Amino acid sequence: MTDVTARFSDRVANYVRFRPDYPAALPRWLEEHAGMAAHALIADVGAGTGITSKMLLDAGRRVVAVEPNAPMREAAIAWLGHEPGFKAVDGRAEATTLDDRSVDGVIAGQAFHWFDQDATRAEFARIVRPGGFVALFWNSRRLTGTPFLEGYEKLLREYGVDYANVAESYADDDSMQAYFGDSMIGKDRFPHSKRLDYPALEGRLLSSSYVPKAGSPAYGPMLQALRRLFDTTSTDGHVDFDHDTRVYAGRIA
Known about the structure:
This protein is an alpha/beta fold.
């Protein structure tokens, strides 16, 4: 079985430059609904290149980024290593290497669907202090609503290597309710959109783990299809890449 922690190793440069961030409302929601205190120490599990870590650092929190993929972890350190409230460790969601009851909360952004849920629940319960929280969130691309969004989804269905499997693994309300049970604190959804020119759109596509790599027979035709889609749907040299950021929070006993 392929190690999912290595899926993005050869896409780090595009991931750093082109992956979307998260709405400013998200840290505020974690404060108000999950009880994320000022100066809290948060474990960012599956931290990747540090997008979620940067969000929390900017909100005044301390962060320990847990990331098993060495190129992605090194990118996070290169970006955030100078921040006094940041450190990164080589660990997995199921075995973070963190001490018992050592963090005030756990977050996972765009990562939880890769985790073993049972093992992760036990690990989160071990590392979170009493009264702490776990928050899981995703940027979910809108699939319909504009010619661009619908064309982009069609392109992924045609050229994506295992796109359908990955897309269908994202959590929904029912699976998150089952994960947290009676300890769920809350859930919410925030609109989050980016306006992209063609280089940013191409970089965004190539940052995805499920699209063909350079050298693949489908790589060239995929980029040609992307260029046609952009040329026929863009306005003033840009397309609107629309997401909804979904967040779920709870306690783990």
